[in-house]
Amino acid sequence: MEQQYEGYKDLADSLKSASALLNLEGKSQLHQDIITICNHLVNPSFRIAVFGPFNHGKSTLLNAMLGNRTLPIDLIPTTGAAITVKYGSDLQTRIMLVDGTEIYRSGTEILQEFAILDGNRQMRKDVASVEIFCLHPFLETGVEFLDLPGTNDREEQDNLVREQLLSADLVIQLLDARKLMTLGERENLRDWLLDRGIKTVIFVINFINLLEPDEQKQVQNRLMFVAESFRAELPPGFSNLYRVDALPALRARLKGDVAAANSSGLAAFETALQNIVEILQPNRGSVRLPRVQAIASQIQLSLKAKIDHIAIEIKSFDDKQNTKVEINQKAANLIYKGFAISAGELRDWLALPNLLTKYQAEAAVALAENNFTSWQTNTLKKDLTQLQLAAGKWLDQAYEFFHEERPQDLLIPFPSKPQVILPSKSSNTDDLSEPGSIAVGGGIGWLLGGPVGAAVVGSISYLLNKNIQNQDEQLAKEFYHQEVAKLCITAIEDYLSRFSAQGLSILIEYEQKAEKIICFELSQEPLEITNKRETLQRLQNSFNQLLQQLEKVKVLSNYQPYKEIPQSPNINRKYSPQPERVKTFSQKDPDIKQQHENTAKNTGTRVKFVSPPPPKASPSLRPEELEAKFRDWELNEEIARMKAEMRTPGSQTGKQQNTTQSNKTPNQAQTDKITRAYDILGLQANASQTEVKQAYRTLVKKWHPDLFVNQPQLLKQAQEKMHLVNEAYTILSEK
C-alpha cells in the first residue's frame, strides 16, 4: 500500500507540472479539478459525499446516520460550504479561512456562523474549509462524510459541488420521491458524474413516505429505471438504489427507536453502505483512477494542442531554413565544381610538358626573329588571361551568392625575357652569306634575313619536330644556324620552366583562398525560435512524464510518447564543399604531379594578387530570387552537358544525323535539318536565339528523363524526346 501511494504521489506531481505548463487560469474548471484530484489521490481516507439539489434532506440523512443533530437542518438551503465529517474523540469543529487562520470550537454551533448561507443566500467568501470531528465507529474505520451544498440554487454553489465530487470515493445521490428528476439533475448525472469517471454512485430516495401507498410503488419503479440506466460500478450483488425516509429515520435514532429506524429504510441502507465500503476501501485506486484518467485526458488534449501548434510554427521555420540552406549548398557545390574544373584546366595548361608541346616551337621562332615580346603578349598572355578569368568568374559568383571574403584577381606574372648569347662563328661553318648580326642586351638582336635567318627558323622546327637536338651534338655544331636554333630552344625551355613553376605555385595558393570564398555561414536562428524549441521540449517532456506515470498505475491512454526533439542542425556552422572534390594535381599525368611538387617545393616565388576594388553594396538576395538564379545556372549546366554528350562520336544523335543526311546534298540536308529543328522545338522559322533557348529549356523541364525514373514506358518516351530536342537545339544554336 505504501508503494502504491508513492506512485499516486508521483502521478499527482506530474498532473500539477503539466497543469503549470498550460498556464490555466486559477478559476478555470480544469485547474480546480486538477488541484482537487491531486489532493484526493494522496488522501488515505475513504470519502463518501452526499449530493443532490437543495432541500432534498442531505444533512438530515447524514445526521440520521451519525445519530445526532450534528449538521445544520432547516427548510431552506442552509449548508453554504462543503462540510467534511471525520473521526474524532470529541465533537469539535475546525474552520479554515482563506487567509490561513484556523478556528477550533467544541460542538457544532459555530457552523451557524461560518457554514450556512447568509440572508441573501450567499456563501461566505473567507471560508476555505469546514471540518467536524465526532466519535462514530464507522468514521473510525477511515471513512469521511462530505455534506455538499444544495445544487440548482446558485452557480457559485454548483461550481463548488462539481469540484468537490472529484474528491469523493463514493457518491450518495439523494432523490426526491415527490417529483421526477429535473433536467438539471439528469445533466448533472451525465456531466458532473459519468463524464468525469465518477461511477461509484448510490441513489437514495427520500420523502417516499409522504406519498400515497399506490403512488409509492409507481415512483419507486420509475426511479429504479433511472438508477439502472446510470450503470454504476459497485461490487457485485449490491443494488445502487435504496429507500430512506430521512426525517423519520433521524427522529427514530434520536429516540433510540430501532423498529422505526428499520421501517424508515435506514438500517438496510447503512448495512449495504458499510459492506460496499469494506470492499472498495482497501483498493481505493480502482475508484479514483477513472477520475484521474478523465482529468488526465483533458490535460493531454490541451498539452497536445499546444505542442502541435508550436511544432507547426517550428517546422514552418525549419522548412524555410532548410530550403534556403539546400539552395545555398547546391549553389556552393555547383560553383565549387566549376571552379575545380577551371582550376584543373589552368593547372594542366601550366604543366611544363604541355607548355613545351604547345608553345616551345613558335616561342623559339619568335625569339630567333626578335619578336618574342609581341608573341608573349598576343599568344601566351591571351591564352593565360582566358584561363585565369574562367577560374576567377566562379569566385565572383560565390561572392555574389554568399558575401564571404571578396575574391582577389588571379594574376600569374611572366618571367623575364629569355636571354641568348650568340656563339662565335667559325670561318668554315657554312658558305651562306649573312646580312649582318649584333648582340643586343645579351639576346638575339641581329636582323634575320636571307639564307642564315631562314636556316635558323627552319632548324628550330626541324630540331623540335624530329627531336634530334641531343642525338648528334657534332652535327649541330657543324652548322652555325643549327647551333643558334638550339640556343633559342634551350632558352625557351628555361623560360617556360620558370613560368610553369611560378604559375603552379600561385595557383595552389589561389585555390586555398577559394575555400574561404566558396562557403556560407549557416545563420543563427532567432531567439524567438530557440525559445519555442525549449518550450516545446518542456511540454513534450511533461506529456511523456504524465504518460509514464499513468502507465505505472495502469491507467490506459490513447496517446503515444513524443520523441526527443533534435537540436536545430543549422546553428553556428559553416558549410563548405568537400575539399576532395577539387583535384589538387592533374590526374592525367603522374609526371605533371611530380613536376609540380618539385617546382612548388624549390621555387621561392610567392603569389601576387591584385587588390580588388571596394565591395559594392548589394542587398542579399531573397530566397525566391536565389532559387531562381540557381535554377538558371543548374539548367545551363545541364544544357551544356547534354550538348557535349550529344556531340560525342557514336552517340545516337550523331547516328541519326548521319542516317538522315546520307542520301541528301549538303545544302538541302542542312535546310531540312533546320526546318525540322524548328518543328521539334515548336517554333516558327527564323525564331530568335532567345526564343530557341527558352523553348529548349521549357522542353527540358518537361521531358527530362529523371522525371520518369519509376515509369518505364514514359522514361523511354522521354529519352527519345530528349534526343530529338538536343539535336534540334544544337542545329539551331550553330546555324
Write up what this structure looks like.
It is built from 24 helices and 15 strands. α12 (284-350) packs across α20 (623-647) and α15 packs across α17 (480-514). It is an alpha/beta fold. The protein starts with a helix and ends with a helix. The strands form four sheets. A nine-stranded mixed β-sheet has the order 4-3-5-2-6-1-7-8-9, sandwiched between helices. It has a two-stranded antiparallel sheet with strand order 10-15. It has a two-stranded antiparallel sheet with strand order 11-12.
Q: Kindly report the spatial arrangement of strands forming the biggest sheet.
A: 4-3-5-2-6-1-7-8-9
Poorly predicted parts: 428-452, 474-478, 580-623, 645-664
Biggest sheet layout: 9 strands, mixed
SS strand fraction = 5-15%
How large is the count of helical segments? 24
Given the C-alpha coordinates, what overall shape results?
A: rod-shaped
Average pLDDT number: 78
What share of residues is helical?
A: 55-70%
Calculate the terminal CA-CA distance, rounded to whole Å.
95 Å
Our Rg estimate from Cα atoms comes to 51 Å
Q: How many beta-strand elements?
A: 15
Structural class: alpha/beta
Give the SSE map.
Elements: H1 2-22, H2 29-41, E1 46-51, H3 58-66, E2 83-87, E3 92-97, E4 102-106, H4 111-114, E5 127-134, H5 137-140, E6 143-147, H6 155-165, E7 170-176, H7 183-193, E8 201-206, H8 213-229, E9 241-243, H9 246-255, H10 258-263, H11 266-280, H12 284-350, H13 352-368, H14 372-402, E10 409-410, E11 439-440, E12 443-444, H15 450-466, H16 473-478, H17 480-514, E13 520-522, H18 527-552, E14 573-575, H19 590-602, E15 609-610, H20 623-647, H21 652-661, H22 666-681, H23 689-703, H24 712-734
Parallel strand pairs: 1-6, 1-7, 2-5, 7-8, 8-9
Antiparallel strand pairs: 2-6, 3-4, 3-5, 10-15, 11-12, 13-14
